[in-house]
Design a protein that fits this description.
It holds the Pfam family AstA. One of its GO terms (biological process) is L-arginine catabolic process. This is Arginine N-succinyltransferase. GO terms for molecular function: arginine N-succinyltransferase activity. By secondary structure, the protein is an alpha+beta fold. The chain has two domains: 268 residues, Aminopeptidase, CATH 3.40.630; 70 residues, Beta Barrel (Barwin-like endoglucanases), CATH 2.40.40. The protein contains twelve helices and 15 strands. Strands 1-2-3-6-7-10-9-4-5-8 form a ten-stranded mixed sheet, with helices on both faces. A five-stranded mixed sheet has the order 13-12-15-11-14. Helix 2 crosses helix 3. The chain is globular, with a radius of gyration of 22 Å. The structure holds arginine. Arginine binds next to helix 7.
């Protein structure tokens, strides 16, 4: 298929929908895993693992859940009219439900001697399990044709529309771990300076192993003592908290959502981990329920784009449509959009503006 132009883009997006993954999506999921840049531990390009992922997701969407546990909810961005799956994204209800979730936490130590009249602040990285309780947004992969479109934002943020509806299933703290900086040869300078000494494997290999095998090897082999940053290579230090070049816009969008850079970074590539309390997110604060009113597409007034989600757990659907409200607060939807969402006139849908205010990039000074 040819590149969608800006003009055809919104037209094409009309038929795109976020829905839970099904077993029929397995081949597409495998493709998306293979084409993720860089490859993701949370989305291993391995048919068996992906099959398990789908089974697990179906159980999560259809199960009764009162508090977050080891559920994984996997979504796809689909063009069901053409039978195409264009992207995927997952929510892990609890980052470290069965095994701990490992990060490095940036800390400061003071090395002082009164006798020698020296006082040095030394930055360290200490292994941490603190992020284990957070709900993790992960395993994002999108067909490159849709990069930079509103479909990308929909795929990334529809998960928030889901969490907003089923708060008991998720932690109050949400986190996103971005792939870390890799150089032009796809090497991780942080890995070369740190992990390499303990694993004698390339970053790509270890990233793959972490995806398809149990993670207990991390605890067994990673150094237990804090790392002193001055002892790392300058290239490794420069990579701490730095995202992979292909994920710059994604990070920016999540910062605009209200996520904040935390003191935690990835243990392999030192990629940034952003966190926040969910109530602080723009999409949570702006989300509002509206009854649906059906209107033919050509009679709808012009309005800002919004994410619009139905209220069906296992039948969750979320689309981008115009945020066109009637004077009495009904959301005016075309019959085509209502059909995509599986809602009739009078049913309530959750809506939140797609456009975000611009990002504030700051390190959270508190306990985040
Ligand atoms: N770059 C990576 N593949 N990191 C994955 C390993 C650590 C990850 N935080 C976990 O505990 O699951």
């Amino acid at each position: 298929m040819s590149e969608p132009t800006a003009a055809t883009q919104e037209g094409a997006l009309r038929m795109l929908v976020i829905r839970p993954v099904t077993m029929a999506d397995l081949p597409a999921l495998e493709q998306l895993a293979e084409h993720a840049v860089p490859r993701l531990t949370n989305l291993p390009a391995n048919r068996e693992r992906l099959e398990e992922r789908i089974v697990r997701s179906e159980a999560a969407f259809n199960g009764e859940v009162d508090y977050p546990g080891d559920e994984h909810y996997t979504f796809v961005l689909a063009d069901d009219a053409r039978g195409e799956v264009l992207g995927t994204a997952t929510i892990r209800a609890q980052a470290g439900a069965n095994e701990a979730y490992y990060t490095y936490r940036q800390e400061t130590l003071i090395h002082a001697s009164q006798q020698l009249n020296v006082r040095r602040e030394v930055q360290t990285l200490a292994l941490s399990h603190e992020v284990s309780d957070a709900t993790l947004l992960c395993a994002f992969s999108l067909n490159p044709r849709y990069k930079g479109t509103s479909a990308e934002s929909l795929l990334r943020r529809a998960r928030l529309m889901f969490i907003a509806q089923y708060p008991e299933r998720f932690s109050r703290i949400l986190a996103v771990a971005f792939p870390g900086y890799l150089d032009a040869r796809s090497e991780s300078p942080f890995w070369e300076s740190v992990g390499r000494h303990f694993f004698a494997r390339s970053f790509q290999e270890i990233n793959h192993i972490a995806g398809v095998r149990s993670k207990s090897f991390i605890a067994e082999v990673m150094p237990q003592f804090p790392l002193y940053l001055p002892l790392l290579t300058p290239q490794a230090r420069a990579a701490i908290g730095r995202e992979h070049p292909a994920h710059e816009e994604a990070l920016e969008e999540m910062l605009a959502e209200g996520f904040v850079r935390s003191r935690h970074v990835d243990i392999f590539d030192a990629g940034p981990i952003v966190k926040t309390e969910r109530e602080r997110l723009e999409s949570f604060r702006s989300a509002a329920w509206h009854p649906v009113r059906l209107r033919p597409e050509h009679t709808l007034p012009d309005a800002e784009p919004a994410m619009i989600a139905n209220q069906k757990l296992g039948g969750f659907r979320c689309i981008v449509a115009r945020y066109a409200l009637s004077p009495t607060g009904q959301l005016m939807l075309s019959p085509e959009h209502a059909k995509q969402l599986g809602v009739e006139e009078g049913r309530a849908v959750l809506a939140a503006p797609l456009t975000l205010p611009s990002a504030v990039d700051a390190l959270d000074e508190g306990e985040m």
